[in-house]
Amino acid sequence: MTTADLLAGIEARRMPALARAISLVENGREGYEALLSSLHPRVGRAHRIGITGPPGAGKSTLAERLVQTYRAGGRTVAVVAVDPTSPFTGGALLGDRIRMESVALDPNVYIRSMATRGELGGVATTTREVCDVLDAFGFERILIETVGVGQSELTIAATADTAVLVLVPESGDGIQVLKAGVMEIADLYVINKADRPGADRLRTEIDVMLGIRRGNAFRHVAPHHRPTTPPPGKSVGEGAAPWEPPALAVSAVRNEGIDGLVAAIERHAEYLQRSGELSRRRRERLVRHTREVVDRGVRALVWEEGGGEAALRAGLERVAGGTVNPYKLAHEILAGVKKEMGNGHA
Amino acid sequence: MTTADLLAGIEARRMPALARAISLVENGREGYEALLSSLHPRVGRAHRIGITGPPGAGKSTLAERLVQTYRAGGRTVAVVAVDPTSPFTGGALLGDRIRMESVALDPNVYIRSMATRGELGGVATTTREVCDVLDAFGFERILIETVGVGQSELTIAATADTAVLVLVPESGDGIQVLKAGVMEIADLYVINKADRPGADRLRTEIDVMLGIRRGNAFRHVAPHHRPTTPPPGKSVGEGAAPWEPPALAVSAVRNEGIDGLVAAIERHAEYLQRSGELSRRRRERLVRHTREVVDRGVRALVWEEGGGEAALRAGLERVAGGTVNPYKLAHEILAGVKKEMGNGHA
C-alpha cells in the first residue's frame, strides 16, 4: 500500500488503512514522516485525554468506563495504551485482547496497545504521532493510557489536552506521591476505589497539594494577570479564573461517578478553548514536536547515513582495551560525521 | 577552578573539589566532558547498586540502612538520589537536608540529590556521569535511588551493576506490578515492610514471575549453555548456574534483614565478576554511553552551533499559521544544518 493509498483509506475511514498507517508510524518504516506530513492538515479536531497513575490504580477499568460513556453519548473513541517493552517477552505482557471486552467489538471504538521502545528515546513522540493518525481519521476522543508514573510517562501525558491523574487510597503516603512529580501536571484528579478506607485522607492530601500549587502558581504570574480575589473553590473554569483542578471520587468497578468525570473533562475542554490555553498548549507542543523530529532526523543522519555506527563499532575495541575513552571516541565520530556532511555524502 | 585543579582535588580526595566536579557535570557546564575524559582511567572500581520501586516502598529508608551497614563494615558509600524536577517548584520537593540524618555527617558518606532534566532526555547519561565522578573519587559503593517506576527510571537503574527492586505488600496487584515492566530488570527483589499483611501473597507473585522469567530466559540460551539440571532454589549464583534473583524479606524501619540484603548484594557482585557478566555489562554500557555522548554532541551542534534554534524560531510562525507543517520545517532545519557543516562553520 502506498502513502497515497493509505491517505485515501484514512479519508474514507477504512479500518485496515488505519491499522496499517499506525503500524507504519509506530515502527518508523519508510514513508511514515511523509504520511504524517500529509495528514497534518486533518489533525487537531480530537480531544486527547491522558490517563496516568501508579500501577494498580485501575486506569484500564476507568478508561473502559469512559469509552462506554462516550459511546452512550454517540462519540467515537480511540484508546492508545502505552505498555512497556519487556527485555524478556519482547513486548507488552497484556495485549489488546484481554482489554476492554465490553467495547472491543464496537466499530466506533479503536483500541491500540503500543510497546514502548525505550532505547530510541522517542516514546512520547511516537505516541503523539499515533494519536495524530487517529485524530486525522476522525476519532472525537482519544484516551492515552500510560503504565507507570515515571518521567517518560509524564512526557507522554503532557502530549494530551487534558491530563487525568488516577489515585487510589492505597497509593501510599501523600508525600511519596508528591515525590513522584506527577501530581503537578494533572488537570483533573480522580480518587478511584473511593469506597475504600483512606479515601478521605487522600482527598485531604490532594487538597493540601493543590493549595501549595496555587500559591506557587500565583507567585510566578505578573501582577496584572492575578485575579483580584482568589478564585472560589467551586467556580471550576468559570470566567477569567484559572482552571482549578477538581478532585473527583469515583468507583470504576462499580461504575459510580463516571458521568461526573466525563462532565469535568468536557468542562476542561471548554475552558481550554475559551481561555486560549488550547492554542497556547498546542503551539508549545508543535515546537517541541518539530524539535523532536529534527533530533530524530539528525540521529538517523549520524548513525545510519553519516557512518557513525561503523565508526562506533570500529572504535569499540579501543574503548574496551582502554586506549581511548568514550569521550574521545565520541569526538572522533562527530568529526567524521561533520566531514561526511561537508563532502555532501550525507 | 580549572579542570586541572578539579582533577588534583579529586585525586587528593578533597570534598569541595568533588562537589564542584559534580555540579559541573550535572549542569553540563564548559569543560565537563574534558573532566570526565580525564577521570575515565580512574572509573570502574566502585560497585554500583540501583534501588528502584514504586512511591511509598521505603526506598530512602532502605538506602539509609544500607549506608549504615556498609559504614559499619568500613566501606565508603555515596548515594545519588534522582528526584524529578517539578515544573512548579523548579526542583526536588525533598532536598538532601531531610534525608538520611543518621549518616549525613559521616565524612565517608556522600549524599547527592539530582534534579532530573526531563527535556534534555539525558537523565540516565548524567546520572551515570555523576556516578563516574564518585567512582573516580574512590567511593567503594554507590547507591543510585530513583523515584517512580517508569521507563526513565528503568534506564537509570540499568546503569547500575546490581539492580534492587523494592516492593511492599500494598504495592498493588501482582499483575499490575508486572505491567510496569520493572520486575524483569532486577537482580534482587526486596519485600519491604514484610510484617504487613499481604507479604506472603507478594512473595508468591514474585516466585510465579521468576518462574516465567526463567522459562523465557532458557528459551533464548544456546543448548550448550543450558545447565543440564535446573539450578536448585538455594544455590544463588553458585558454579556455572545463571544468577537466580533472590527475593528477600526485610523491614527497613525495624532494621531487620538488612545484613542478609547486603550479603546478597555482595554475592551478586562476586557472581558478576566470576561469570564475566561484569565486563560484558560494562562493555555494553560503554557502547551505550559513547552513543549518548555523540547524540548529545550532535544536539549541541544542531541547536546551538548549527543555527537550528534560530531556524526553529523563524519557522514557528509559519507552523502556527499552518503554511508549513512540523515535518517540512524539520526538513528545512536539517538541510540548513547540513549546509552550515559543509561550509565548515560548525
Report on the structure:
2 copies of one chain form a homodimer. Chain A is an alpha/beta fold and 346 residues long. Chain A has 3 domains: 1-40, no CATH class; 43-275, Rossmann fold; 306-342, no CATH class. Chain A has helices at 3-11, 15-26, 32-39, 59-72, 123-137, 151-157, 174-179, 199-219, 258-275, 277-305, 308-321, 326-342, and strands at 47-52, 77-83, 109-115, 141-146, 162-167, 188-191, 247-249. A 7-stranded parallel beta sheet of chain A has the order 3-2-4-1-5-6-7, sandwiched between helices. In chain A, strand 5 (162-167), helix 7 (174-179) and strand 6 (188-191) form a beta-alpha-beta unit. The interface between A and B is large, with 87 and 87 residues.
Strand tally of chain A, please?
7
Which topology of the largest domain in chain A does CATH recognise?
Rossmann fold
The overall number of domains of chain A is 3
Largest sheet of chain A: 7 strands, parallel
Strand content of chain A: 5-15%
Order of helices and strands of chain A: HHHEHEEHEHEHEHEHHHH
